[in-house]
Design goal:
The chain is α/β, with parallel strands linked by helices.
Length: 701
């Protein structure tokens, strides 16, 4: 059993966590706020550019003011969007629920107003958590009859939905106020402060590593790190502004750690410094899907936005990439701070948002010096080296899991490539669900790959002469413990794995090998093998099949089921012509049980039909006997050779009557046997006495 660093249990637990309603709502809700964050960041960047270009201060101040106001309403937008997502989960009216969640955030802001330090720290977290608690409560209340002000049928749907949310909304608002008021009576909550202050920036290495790691850990669970840490990021931006004030006064800047340094040199490409991951994928990954995903993410990565990678790989809840995802920004901020402390780079004095363009932010953050660009490029390269070992390990794991070798069939099963698409609803949960499905599929295929495959041969006996006139090669398998495996079970999984072409060709090679072995013993017997329509309609597979079968000089023919006839008619005509060209014959297997083969018999050059066992069993009833008789007459009229399958009793044998020669394949004569035993069976049939009189008469009718 292959070893794995990450056992299934933790991954399955992460998959369950990825599907949790609360986390999904936070991920999707905060993702909806992303355009607003980018617009807010754009105003700040434009404000900086206006000052650098010497444009009027009023314009720069206006742009900066717009940035501050938009940033101030982010908790409201977050609470509204998360509430909307949860309203879908709980089947509540969407817009009324979302707007009520906005109201709850406003209530929280007002209740926290007398406690400014607690408000600065807790407002955003309350905006995220309030809908998670409030929406399920409103859903429960909404289902109670006494809360419904507008019964169905009296007013329009929108009016009804709005009215019926009034009572649940009022009661929930009261609960929110009561809970917050009670919580603020606890000193530890009322006096809670931002875990980072300007004083703590005196130890920049510890604080920088803590902020970088915390941001990545939050994003690992799908929570927008910088957004969730808005109070901390505000302190870091305040440090940048203080640096600017100090520099303008002619003094040396104080705070090496600040918001601009993080955006320019720690979060290069977004949380986790994932521009380095993009570089690592392009350098070390052979997966086409990963490379396409990396290329698609480059434009937004240059704006320090990496949602395509976060939700596409996904990076969220991906244990294989957790270590470099946390470590890379920590290493980046540590090196950047060391460069500042050594005096090679001046502390940043220009306030830039985290979403400022790469290179541009490094140039401005370094005081308009090229050393900042050089440092940023070096950090991207170093980050790629940090991501590389985990990515290579991921590639090895992917390669190990992606192909399963069948030692008996001498073929491999290639696992479906990991999807690199953004799923319509929740990409993380959908991706983990698809991974679980693929793991189950690969597990079954891996078990089948341990089987020993071989052929057995079921004799076909002429009802007229009693001689063995042919046989059908049947695929068999033995498990590792030596137990026989049911063909229908493993063939179904092989078909789902798209391996039937390989199976068909392996069976053909084994059948031809058996024919050549018989010929060396001075024994010949026609044989049929089962072939799928996919093999016959694939030019490459057909070429390989023809090369194998022509060695048998017409002794090995093919059977295909009726449903294969509905595939590419032109390709099947070509396949049948080529088979006839090497002396092989074409049989229709399970005749009468699939698609309407009667309409196809005149289109294709069919040599023989095999009547399914179900018609033999039905002969015990009058209508069944009539159907069997009709099938036999029909085949006689078309001058088709007739093979009847599944004959097990003398009564079933006696019921067969046709003026044409009927070939019987069934347990009445023999089960499937090995190649050596078939030779003995055929020779015994040559020495067998003549048929009983009643069977001879029946066959002659």
């Amino acid at each position: 059993m292959p070893k794995t660093i990450f056992p299934h249990y933790p991954r399955d637990r992460l998959a369950a966590l990825a599907s949790a309603n609360a986390l999904r709502a936070i991920r999707e809700g905060l993702l909806w706020v992303m355009p607003c964050l980018l617009v807010s960041a754009l105003f700040l960047v434009l404000s900086v550019c206006a000052r650098l270009l010497g444009l009027p201060d009023a314009l720069a101040d206006l742009l900066a003011s717009l940035h501050r106001k938009l940033s101030g309403i982010m908790p409201l937008l977050a609470g509204t969007s998360i509430g909307y997502m949860l309203s879908i989960r709980h089947r509540l009216p969407h817009l009324p629920t979302a707007l009520l969640c906005l109201c709850f955030v406003v209530i929280a802001e007002n209740v926290l107003a007398p406690y400014p330090r607690a408000a600065a720290t807790l407002t955003l977290f309350i905006a995220i958590l309030a809908p998670i608690a409030a929406v399920p409560l409103m859903a429960r209340l909404h289902r109670r009859r006494w809360t419904q002000l507008a019964p169905d049928g009296l007013v329009g749907e929108n009016v009804r939905d709005s009215l019926n949310m009034i009572v649940p909304g009022l009661l929930t608002a009261g609960v929110v106020m009561a809970v917050l008021s009670a919580a603020l009576r606890i000193p530890a909550i009322a006096q809670v402060d931002i875990p980072l202050s300007l004083a703590s920036l005196d130890s920049p290495f510890a604080s920088g590593a803590l902020v970088a790691a915390l941001n990545s850990l939050l994003w690992f669970f799908g929570i927008h790190g910088a957004h969730a840490m808005a109070p901390i990021m505000d302190v870091l931006d305040q440090a940048t502004r203080l640096n600017a004030t100090t520099a303008a006064a002619g003094y040396e800047s104080v705070y090496a750690l600040n918001g601009t340094l993080l955006g320019a040199f720690a979060f290069i490409g977004g949380s986790g410094a994932t521009l380095s991951l993009v570089v690592a994928i392009l350098l070390f990954s052979r997966s086409e899907s990963l490379r396409v995903l990396a290329l698609a993410s480059i434009p937004v990565s240059l704006l320090n936005v990496n949602e395509i990678l976060l939700f596409g790989l996904p990076l969220i809840l991906n244990p294989r990439l957790l270590l470099p995802f946390v470590l890379t920004p920590v290493v980046n901020v540590t090196i950047a701070l060391a460069v500042v402390q050594l005096g090679w780079l001046a502390p940043a004095t220009v306030t830039l948002p985290l979403t400022s363009p790469v290179l541009f932010n490094a140039y401005l953050g370094a005081g308009e010096h090229l050393v900042g660009i050089a440092l940023q490029l070096a950090l991207v390269a170093l980050g790629a080296c940090i991501y590389a070992p985990c990515l290579i390990a991921l590639e090895r794991q992917r390669t190990a899991d992606s192909t399963v070798y069948f030692k008996s069939l001498d073929t491999t099963f290639p696992q479906l490539q990991e999807e690199s698409l953004l799923y319509a609803h929740d990409p993380v949960a959908s991706t983990y669900a698809n991974r679980a499905r693929r793991r189950a599929e690969v597990s079954r295929i891996r078990a089948i790959s341990e089987y020993d495959f071989y052929l057995e041969f079921q004799p076909q006996v002429s009802l007229r002469t009693g001689l063995c006139t042919g046989c059908e090669a049947l695929l068999r398998a033995t498990g590792p413990e030596g137990t026989q495996q049911a063909p229908l079970e493993f063939l179904r999984w092989l078909a789902q794995a798209d391996l039937m072409r390989d199976v068909d060709l392996w069976v053909a090679r084994q059948a031809v090998r058996q024919c050549l072995a018989w010929r060396a013993q001075g024994f010949t017997l026609p044989m049929t093998i089962n072939v799928t329509g996919a093999t016959l309609t694939s030019p490459a597979s057909l070429d390989r099949l023809i090369k194998v079968l022509e060695q048998a000089q017409g002794q090995v023919s093919v059977e295909l089921t009726e449903d294969a006839l509905v595939e590419d008619a032109g390709a099947l005509h070509t396949a049948f012509d080529r088979l006839h060209g090497i002396g092989a014959r074409v049989y229709i297997d399970d005749f009468g049980t699939g698609y309407s083969a009667l309409s196809y018999l005149h289109q294709f050059q069919i040599d023989a039909v095999k009547i399914d066992r179900s018609f033999v069993l039905a002969q015990g009833h009058d209508r069944g006997a009539l159907v069997m008789s009709g099938l036999l007459r029909f085949c006689e009229a078309l001058n088709l050779q007739i093979i009847v399958e599944g004959v097990e009793t003398e009564a079933q044998l006696s019921a067969l009557a046709s003026s044409a020669e009927i070939i019987v394949q069934g347990w009445y004569y023999s089960k499937a046997v090995s190649g050596d035993h078939l030779v003995d069976f055929a020779r015994r049939r040559q020495e067998a006495p003549a048929l009983p009189a009643q069977l001879s008469n029946a066959a002659a009718i």
